[in-house]
Specification:
Layout (H helix, E strand, L loop, with lengths): L10 H5 L13 H14 L18 H13 L6 H12 L4 H8 L4 E4 L15 E3 L6 E10 L6 E8 L2 E8 L5 E8 L3 E12 L2 E2 L3 H36 L1 E2 L2 E2 L4 H29 L5 H26 L9 H12 L6 H17 L1
Parallel strand pairs: 1-4
Antiparallel strand pairs: 2-3, 3-7, 4-5, 5-8, 6-7, 9-10
Helix pairs in contact: 3-6, 3-7, 4-5, 4-6, 6-7, 6-8, 6-9, 7-8, 8-9, 8-10
């Protein structure tokens, strides 16, 4: 669905739309990101999960993974994947007003981690105070993406031993943001909510487990697309670059290495699609979500590092898209849990499945 937006002419610009330097981002950065976000909204990207009667596409989980793969191939940075997760949460209580607002372009960012070592499946502590309306929350979250560019925040946390998920307004005076630059030439935010009014409660522990599984599948799809993009860059360079009178891609050592990475990328893609198909069948897909994300995360780091090696010294320059792919892979591979955390979570699920 993003073929026209991410064509050969626009994709290089989209790849760099989230780039920030240590001195501050380029003057046209926010405008470019806003333009791309509005284009995605007009294409119906935020309404993928809505039924056709509500102007959506009734997209399956496999469709969402395919869309995430297209985003990853263009290295598109923005709150779309978090917004799709918020839409799935909003569909359950059936709050039409908030759902229409989010699908109409009010982006959402997920605020989950209380510290850098925490797994997203185990959100940090949150204080809930009963009051007017749905109550208020007090919580602090780190490593929140695109917090300055969205209208709402989904804050997950443990309160009185239970997991609760709240939707709050990012622009409320009780919400403060602190910017952190990250290694992928982007930025993350520390978010603090101090007695922030809750717009809606979006579920508890069971809902959050499903949300994490869905977000991990989509993140795996994004990483597969990112890996494919880096692989395409490596193959293109190996075709152009000549040594000893022939393209370097004809040398067996390089050709065999690229062939291996093609096979691994296809395997990760098939595993991610299989996990999405399992969710579409209504089965418990927490195990396969962790498996496919761990596989895709390992793949992204390996493929992007290989793309850098194929490019040689030019791949290390700031102007190289291969270097940008590598920098983004370092961040994106950890977004919904490190491979170690994912395998630790998958082990008891696999044990229970084998003993059933």
């Amino acid at each position: 669905m993003f073929e026209d937006l991410f064509d050969a002419e626009l994709a290089p610009m989209v790849r760099r739309m989230a780039e920030r330097t240590r001195e501050g981002e380029t003057a046209d950065g926010p405008q470019i990101r806003a333009m791309v976000w509005q284009a995605l909204v007009r294409l119906g990207a935020t309404r993928l999960r809505l039924p056709a009667a509500s102007g959506g596409r009734s997209a399956s989980q496999e469709d969402l993974v395919s869309a995430a793969e297209e985003l990853g191939a263009a290295l598109c940075q923005g709150p779309l994947l978090d917004t799709l997760t918020a839409v799935e949460l909003l569909l359950a209580p059936g709050d039409d007003r908030l759902l229409d607002e989010v699908c109409g372009g009010a982006g959402v960012a997920l605020a989950v981690r209380a510290d850098g070592a925490a797994s997203p499946s185990e959100p940090g502590e949150m204080v809930v105070a009963e009051g007017s309306g749905a109550g208020e929350i007090t919580a602090e979250r780190c490593f929140v993406g695109y917090a300055s560019e969205v209208d709402h925040l989904v804050v997950a946390g443990r309160a009185a031993g239970d997991t609760r998920v709240a939707l709050v307004s990012r622009a409320h005076p009780s919400v403060t943001l602190r910017r952190h630059q990250e290694l992928g030439r982007g930025e993350l935010w520390r978010v603090r909510c101090q007695a922030t009014p809750v717009l809606a409660w979006l579920g508890g522990a069971d809902e959050w487990a499903g949300v994490v599984a869905g977000a991990r599948r989509r993140q795996a799809g994004y990483l597969v697309g990112l890996s494919q993009s880096a692989l395409d860059l490596a193959v293109a360079h190996a075709t152009r670059r000549r040594q000893f009178g022939q393209p370097i891609g004809r040398f067996q050592s390089l050709a065999f290495r690229l062939s291996e990475l093609v096979a691994r990328t296809d395997a990760a893609r098939l595993l991610t699609r299989a996990a999405a198909a399992q969710a579409d069948r209504g089965e418990d897909a927490r195990l396969t979500a962790a498996q496919c994300l761990a596989t895709a995360a390992d793949l992204a780091r390996v493929v992007t590092a290989a793309a850098l090696q194929v490019h040689g010294a030019v791949g290390m320059t700031d102007d190289s898209d291969a270097q940008l792919c590598y920098c983004r892979a370092v961040i994106e591979a950890l977004w919904w849990g490190t491979p170690t955390q994912l395998r630790a979570e998958a082990a008891p699920l696999l044990r229970a499945q084998l003993s059933a």
